[in-house]
Amino acid sequence: MEGIGLTHYLTLSAVVFCIGVFGMLTRRNAVGVLMSIELMFNAVNITLVAFARYVTPATITGQVVAIFTIAVAAAEATVALAIVLLIYQHHRGIDVDRINFMKW
Amino acid sequence: MLELDKLVKLVGDGIEAVVTALGLGPTWVTLVQLIVAALVVVVFAALVVLFLVWWERKVSARFQMRLGPMRVGWHGTIQTIADALKLLQKELITPANVDRGIYFWAPVVTFVAAMAVYVTVPFGKGLIVRDLNIGILYILSITTFTVIGLLMAGWSSNNKYALLGGFRSAAQVVSYEVPMALAIVAVVMLTQTLSMGEIVSQQAKFYQWYIWRQPLGFLIYLVAATAECNRTPFDLPEADSELVAGFVTEYSGMKFAMFFLAEFLNMFTVAAIATTLFFGGWNGPFLPSWMWFLIKTLAGVFVLMWFRWTYPRLRVDQLMSFAWKFLLPLAFINIVLTGLGIYIFRP
Amino acid sequence: MDTISLAFYALAFLIIAAAIFVVTSKNIFHSAIYLILALFGVAGIYVLLQAPFLAAAQVLIYVGAVSMLMIFAIMLTARIADQTIRHTNEQVPTGLLVSLGLLAVIVYSLWQTPFAISSDPMPEGAGGTLGKLLLTQFALPFEIVSVLLLGALIGAVVIAKKDSVRREPEAPMTPLPKSAEKVAG
User: Across chain B, what does the average pLDDT equal?
Assistant: First the structure.
């Protein structure tokens, strides 16, 4: 068996990303959707760090971008959860199927 | 003198010889060495907790002009062992409507997180399991799991006191982690390394201790660390007069003991980090290095106990506004001052 | 099988299993705990990829902050923790189709692409190189991210503040006339 290479990490990342996509499409609950999005963020981060390790190991720019992704994900989670709380206060529920009051 | 680094090296070499003689590769050597180190640290931690529990009772008794435990052993020295045996024999009660999986894993997570810190704590010259080059950052990040354990306990117990205790604890620890991390950042700006071993070796002389250059940082760290281990005056998560026993309300026997152990270990941990970062770690004259580490760390623990019997408990809102409106700006000011100092005094 | 492979497969199994539980668990609090497990596994992958600083940052930020936020949100919107509520919508077959299709496309293209693997050594030290990069080459993005974080902080406070929900004024001392009650209700 050959050693673990870039493709292994990228495949893992792809699997996690697709699980995230599935969760985002099927979860009814807004916090669940957010969790799936966090999974997708992490999948992308694995890709970035794997590229930093195997393609440009001398200049680890991939890791820098991963740090930015983590920061942006944290910001996203903060604001999104605040919005979820607000929706809950208004509608006593955070079922994403029913959050359609801004359509009309 | 009684330095232990030779002994550690001897044991390490012995393991290497034995494992290699069994025909196993270098990976196995490292693995066995790490397992032995982990066992030693676990035993040490257990002994420390036994001592701390007894000491806490003695100190609190003296503060209240009592004698404390006196019956079992000399001045009650083996009282804690008797208590531990009692806890071991107790029935493990699982209340009817708890969330079983999470209820089971919560004490484990808390305990393992409290233990995992000791991977990179320098106990003495050559006495460090792994001198990770992200040392202090590792400690900061692994301790966050303690809170996850408390939250799991609070949620799964299916008890409103437990839930309130767990969430109070999470809110408190998350809030106080920010000033604590910022106080540590100021020290790291001076040390220019995250490795615990190197931070210690930079403070070989008395006047090199970082407390002299970071007095404000140390005060911030002290307050935030007291809050981190949920000690009075920040013991809201388990304020018995309000919340029965907080997140441990529904736990019994060994599971309770694990939370208890983790709590005392955390107290020792924050004192050990303070020793390493601000008080020169294991550096000191005459006595062996590990003894200096223990003396300094236990002095730190004594300060925490002293707090407990001196200050009244804060209210929740006071606790939060103290962290965000006072400690956090102070930590930022400290960082700016440190930066200015480095800019002025270093070429 | 060498240690790295063993560690990789163990971590990959942990991450994927935990991720599947995150999206399928009926109890949202369990999802949060599995999410923490998955994120911890990702930190392990970073260690394998020789990015220890990122691993620590991942644990510190995701486990210590983001997951905690999630759990708080779950608690504050308590009703969703009820297991009786249906946790998925009608799009399960569609979602499965889309995600599996996406997976097939990505994995196929991954195994087809020849990547330019470089064997240069990684820079020594934990965060030193990273820190230098952040403050030289990436100084502008770094500043923008900090402004973004500040904006998110203030924005979240403004959005979630209790006062932002418009409330009826405190009940007056005298009972309201019938018509006014109707409006208030």
Answer: 82
- Closest by CA to A82, choosing from B328, C72, B144, is C72
Q: Are B335 and B189 in contact, with CB atoms under 8 Å apart?
A: yes
Taking residue B344's Cβ as centre, other Cβ atoms within 10 Å add up to 7
Interface of C with A in 69-128 (CB under 8 A): 69-70, 72-74, 76-77, 79-80, 85-89, 91-92, 94-96, 98-100, 102-103, 106-107, 110-111, 115-123
Do the Cβ atoms of C89 and A28 come closer than 8 Å? Answer: yes
Q: Residue C88: beta bridge partners?
A: A27
Who among C53, C63, C71 is closest to B134 (CB)? C53
SS3 letters for chain C? Answer: CCHHHHHHHHHHHHHHHHHHHHHHCCCHHHHHHHHHHHHHHHHHHHHHCCCHHHHHHHHHHHHHHHHHHHHHHHHHCHHHHCCCCCCECCCHHHHHHHHHHHHHHHHHHHHHCCCCCCCCCCCCCCCHHHHHHHHCCCHHHHHHHHHHHHHHHHHHHHHHCHHHCCCCCCCCCCCCCHHHHHHHC
The distance of C75 to chain B (nearest Cα, Å) reads 9
Residue C114, CA atoms < 13 Å, CB-side half-sphere: 0
ipTM of the complex model: 0.87
Write the pLDDT tens digit of every residue in B244-264. Answer: 666 777 777 777 888 888 888
Q: Are C157 and A78 in contact (CB under 8 A)?
A: no
| Class of the CATH-defined domain A6-98 | mainly alpha
C-alpha span between B228 and B184 (Å, rounded): 14
Domain residue ranges in chain A: 6-98
Give residue limits of the domains in chain B.
Answer: 100-345
Please list every residue in chain C whose beta carbon sits closer than 8 Å to the beta carbon of residue B148: 33, 36, 63, 67-68
**Residue C34 and residue A19: Cα distance in Å, rounded?**
13
Q: Which residue of A has its CA nearest to C118?
A: A55
Cis peptide before B69 (omega within 30 of 0): no
Across the interface, of B132, B144, B167, the residue whose CB is closest to C63 is: B144
Contact A35 C5 (CB under 8 A): no
Confidence of residue C184 (pLDDT cuts 50, 70, 90): very low
